[in-house]
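Handoff note, outgoing to incoming analyst
You'll be picking up this chain. Sequence as last confirmed:
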Amino acid sequence: MTAGAADRARYDRATAHLDAPVAIVDLEAFDANADDLHRRAGGKPIRIASKSVRCRALLERALARDGFAGLMSFTLAESLWLARSGFEDVLLAYPSADRARYAELTADPKLAAAVTVMIDDPAQLDLIDAARDGGREVVRVCLELDTSLKLFGGRVRVGARRSPLHSPAQVADLARAVARRPGFEVVGIMAYEGHVAGVGDAVAGRPLRSRAVRLMQAAARRELAERRAAVVRAVRAVAPGLEFVNGGGTGSVQHTAAEEAVTEIAAGSGLYVPRLFDNYTSFRGRPAALFAQPVVRRPGVGVVTVLGGGYPASGAAGRDRLPVPYLPEGLRYDPQEGAGEVQTPLLGTPADDLLIGDKVWFRHAKAGELCERFDTLHLVEGDAVTATVPTYRGEGHAFL
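Most recent structure output, in case you need it:
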């Protein structure tokens, strides 16, 4: 029996009492992935990207392990909810225009102490001040550095379009603007190198592209390490009380951790290991988060149809954004239909061994977005479900 077949047998036994669609997290794989992130971080704390987990119970489980400290949230509303739930260190990773929540933040000492907000433009300070509605609490601020690699005098750009702050002088100028402004304090710098951490460098069947990605990433790491260190020096001259410098992501943990200027690493998807992380040479994780769809039809030889399954991930549209049939091994989409809104035909010889009601297990393309489709996650240990916990959706929250 292959490892995949053994896992399928375990998952089927564990969920035999549950009707599909159903989502699980294999706790042994989840913990092993956490250990691998901790090892790759080389002693630097890992701040967990909550968008990649979207389940309070699993955020708490990871934070209870060695090497993890703090959360990185994705909306201000989520940040306040997490802080009210007892999480004491929440870094909002994206600027917000949520005036109502800024009014809450600036009026509550506990929230103001627990939540750090992201800015990259003085206009965002204006928005926060206009939203205070009498709130006088000091707002903890993190400055975001643009990590993109610019080539040929800036005519070619590699990396996400995020912050406008690219040079040490630009970041230091914003730090000075914050320092001059009552009610704000610079406490951190963040720089997410998505073109390194979030792009696989070993794409199956595409050796030339994979080689080009590796060369690009090596150049990007060298350039960013030098520039990030200069940014930190420039900001510390303005804000000597700087508490943290955050960088990285699941795909670049060990590289970012090697930079002396970086004090903590961001990661989250590496706990679940979705399909987009299969194409990396730097690490190998264990798929921990899966969902199952039930077989509802057998249209012919070598074909079964499962209910639903059309759960595409965000990003540029393409086949790599679709969930992948995982277990039993050897199933594939019908190219004429793909992953369907209500039903999904699957092709392959394993289909002939599947009966009506059997489960087909899938991996999502990304991590936390799976939790937008399910109210609960069933936690599997061995061949048993040992707990069932709510996702954000199951707790009544859809923050984006």
